[in-house]
Amino acid sequence: MALLDLFIAASIPVLKVLLITALGSFLALDRISILGADSRKHLNNIVFFVFNPALVSSNLAKTVTYQSMVQLWFMPFNILITFIAGSLLGWMLIQITRTPQHLRGLVLGCCAAGNLGNMLLIIIPAICKESGSPFGAPDVCHSFGMAYASLSMAIGAIFLWSYVYNILRISSSKSSKEVEINDSSVDKTPSLNASYTEPLLHSSDEAMQVSKDQLPLVVSPSSRFEHKPQVVLYENPQDSLFSKIMHHAEALAKKLNLKRLLAPSTAGAMVGFAIGLVPFFRNSIIGERAPLRVIQDTALLLGDGAIPSLTLIMGGNLLKGLQGSETPKSIILGIIAVRYIGLPVIGIGVVKLALKFGVVHNNPLYQFVLLLQFALPPAMNIGTMTQLFGAGESECSVIMLWSYALASVALTFWSTFFLWLVA
């Protein structure tokens, strides 16, 4: 296959992303005011809760079978390797550039988490439609490619909200504590009100607090001289142990943010696997003669709106980066080097070793998806996390702006090389 055909097949999807992204940025301008901050927020909620789950569940349900699970089992480990390798390279970048404390979590997150959902959902279908694609019939390529991309998005969401979310949470809490310490060190004059208004014991630790399982007991001064039966109070150890377990479980759930971990796209993936793997559900919903095929058709129709909506939102969010910030150039260049040089090289080694040991079967499309997972720009949801914690918002916008601006060159190069490698 000619190298020019591979280059055209790889560049067309990236150009489509750039055009829709530019349109999103244009619609987000103040003088246009069609895709403003409130509009992006509402559209993002629709995509997050409706379009993405429909897209993931419909594509997985249509293509996942027991035979295809043999090929798909390695993908979660491959995504885990991208997070681990990106974190190690990000830690090295922090040590080299001496990144400030409030930006360390952002740097680690941008190096570890790639855009495993949106970019694959756009690039793979576009490549399948090109005549120079090495993946066979366009309809078959599109069907399996969307299943791989949907599974990648669901697994990536789990790692993103369980790993990167907590990194940014810990980093933002440390930076806020440092700010409080610095603020308190400015005024070293002791304050009488601040020193003596705090109670010695918290309300939850007071010795006189009476629990619901205890009875009130009043002991008179003369009771020590009277031989009366004494009432001995004790707590039920089973209730106490159960309450402690529930308390720790609730605290752990809040720290891990299970609501984000079990995102709608992850729930959609579970539904898609259930429909695809259970014969009763598959025969009832999937197929031209299935009695409930209208459910699958409706999910596919809703899922078609996810890709353009996500790309428009991405373009509107990148507009913030044009305003600029005080982000060190060394950090921006380092993140770009990690995402577009270090990780793709590591990915080639990982996939080649997996092929050598027979872990990955000789499927060109599946290999291409595994390789492409190492060469993607940072995940856009990192910007949502910085807004949530109120730390590094402007710096994240600048990092995203330059990362996605250079993605047009990096993704075209690596997509062409990966196509040549698996062809």
From TrEMBL:
Q: What is its membrane topology?
A: Multi-pass membrane protein
Q: Domain of life of the organism in this record?
A: Eukaryota
**UniProt-listed InterPro entries:** Mem_transp_PIN-like, PILS1/3/4/5/7
Q: Which GO terms describe its biological process?
A: auxin-activated signaling pathway; endoplasmic reticulum to cytosol auxin transport
Give the stretches traversing the membrane: 6-30, 73-94, 106-127, 147-168, 261-281, 331-353, 365-389, 401-422
Q: Where in the cell is it found?
A: Endoplasmic reticulum membrane
Is Signal there in the keyword field? no
Q: Which UniProt keywords apply?
A: Auxin signaling pathway, Endoplasmic reticulum, Membrane, Transmembrane, Transmembrane helix, Transport
Q: Which GO terms describe its cellular component?
A: endoplasmic reticulum membrane
The similarity annotation says: Belongs to the auxin efflux carrier (TC 2.A.69.2) family.
For this protein, the record's PANTHER family field holds:
PROTEIN PIN-LIKES 1, PTHR31651
Role description: Involved in cellular auxin homeostasis by regulating auxin metabolism. Regulates intracellular auxin accumulation at the endoplasmic reticulum and thus auxin availability for nuclear auxin signaling.
The name on file for this protein is OLC1v1016188C1
